[in-house]
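hi! just following up on the protien thing from before. the input was this:
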Amino acid sequence: MIRKRGDIAGFGLNWQHCGRQVFAGFTYSFEKIYQALRRSLRYGRVGPVQAHLIYAESEGSVRASLRHKQELYEAQLIALKGQYETERDAILRELDEETQRQKVMAEQRLEIARLRQADNREVEIQGNGARKTRRGASR
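and the predicted 3d structure came back as:
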């Protein structure tokens, strides 16, 4: 457990070894609190992180301001996630369409190659009725 102020602990060290944080003394900066929490959510973190924010009744307006900023942040995340998913889906559709086009083109090239091969083979019937295959397009 680590006890810290959000405006001090929000920058610098990483705390991925710390699973419980206690914040005392609020700041109006949502970013500083957010950054301080993210210091524990780094690569190498195992398990959840518990955060405790302790405030006095006199800090009610600061708490309300932070709650409002958190709600705005979460709304932005939802909007960005929706935008990302829409863009991702469009890219995946384009890739699927391009894959289909490439598949059709490959099948067409294969069919053209088969037709050319067939054109290059002529079957001549000899006088005794035996079939002979000759390569080349001389007619």
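Residues 123-127 have pLDDT under 50 and may be disordered.
The longest strand covers residues 20-24.
cheers
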